[in-house]
Amino acid sequence: MKEGSWEDDSEENDSSANLSISITEQEVIKVLNKKKSPGPDNMHPKLLQEVSAEVVKPLTLLFQKSIAEGKLPDDWKKANITPIYKKGSRSEAGNYRPVSLTSVVCKLLESIIRDQILDYLNKSVFTTEQHGFVKGRSRLTNLLEVLELWTRSMDEGYGLDVIYLDYRKAFDTVPHQRLLTRLRMVGITGNLLAWIKDFLYNRLMRVIVNGECSSWSQMEWYSSGFSFGSAIVSDLCQRFTELDHNKH
Q1: Which of 10, 69, 150, 181 has the most CB within a 10 Å radius?
Q2: How far apart are CA 165 and CA 160, in angstroms?
Q3: Closest to 22 measured CA to CA, from 100, 105, 119, 92
Q4: Which residues of 184-214 are buried (b: 16+ CB within 10 A; e: fewer)?
Q5: How far apart are CA 109 and CA 64, in angstroms?
Q6: Comparing C-alpha atoms, which of 126, 130, 82 is closest to residue 228?
Q7: 148 Cβ partners below 8 Å, 6+ apart?
Q8: pLDDT tens digits, residue range 32-63?
Q9: pLDDT tens per residue across span 197-239
Q10: 185 against 63, higher pLDDT
C-alpha cells in the first residue's frame, strides 16, 4: 500500500456497530478545565476557562463542524517541539525526548474524541482478559488473575511455562495505515476515521531551543509513531496490539 493512499472504503467494515461521536456543550465545558500548555497559537487554557460561558457555544459548533467534515484547520496541525534531556551525552540527539506543544483548542476536541473512543473500545471491543489501558483494570488486576490461574494449574499437576515479551520503542513504530485499518474494522468509520487520518496528515513542526525557533518543516505523512505529541493518537497507538488481537 502506498504511503498516504489509505482509503476508508478499501475493505468492508467488519463491525456490527459503528461509533458516533457526540459533541455537546456539556462535553466541551467538561474538557475546558484541562490544564494544558499553549502551543504555536499561544492560546492559554486559563483564558478559555475564564471566558468559558462566552466561548463554549462557538467551540461546540466548531468541533461539530470539524467532525462532520472529517477535517482540521491547518493551525491545529502545527507543533512546537522542545527537546528534553534524558541521560547520557548531551551532544547526542538520541538522548533527548521531544516534547510537542500543539493547539490547546484542538487538544480539547482530542480529549472528547479520545474519551468516547476508549469508552467504546472498552465496552464493545476489548475482552475481559484485557487489563492494560482499561478503566478499573491494571497490572495489579492482571497479576491477581494470572497468579490464580497459575496456582490452579500447578495444583492440578500441570506444567507451567511463561513467556514474557516486550516491544522496543513499541509506540514509535505503530504503522499508521495499519492503525487506521484496525480502527475501521472495529467500527470507527466515516467522518470520524477521516478526521483521525487528516489529523495524521500534512503537519507542520518547528524546534524551539533556548527561545530560538527553527523554520517550519512540513511532514506530509507519518508512517508510524506519534512524535507530534497527540493525546488521541498516543492512546490509540498504545492500544494497537489489543486492537490487533481483538479485531472482529
Answers
A1: 181
A2: 17
A3: 119
A4: bbbbbbebbbbbbbbbbbebebeeeeeeeee
A5: 9
A6: 82
A7: none
A8: 866 777 888 888 888 888 899 999 999 999 99
A9: 998 888 888 999 888 999 998 876 656 555 555 667 666 766 6
A10: 63
pLDDT surpasses 60 at 143? yes
Is residue 195 within 8 Å of residue 184, measured between CB atoms?
no
Taking CA atoms, 106 is separated from 41, 73, 114, 232, in Å, by 11, 9, 12, 11
Helix ranges (H only) for the chain are 25-31, 45-50, 52-69, 104-124, 139-155, 176-185, 190-200, 231-238, 240-245
Q: In terms of Cα–Cα distance, which of 76, 40, 38, 77 is closest to 59? A: 76
Residues 120/236, Cβ–Cβ less than 8 Å: no
Nearby residues of 220 by Cβ (< 8 Å), 6 or more positions away: 4, 201, 202
Q: 125: which DSSP letter?
A: T
Rounded to the nearest 10 degrees, the angle between the axes of helix 52-69 and helix 190-200 is: 100
Question: Residue 91 CB: number of other CB atoms within 10 A?
Answer: 6
Q: Which three cell numbers stand for residue 23?
A: 459533541
Residues 6+ apart with CB under 8 A from 14: 185, 186, 247, 248
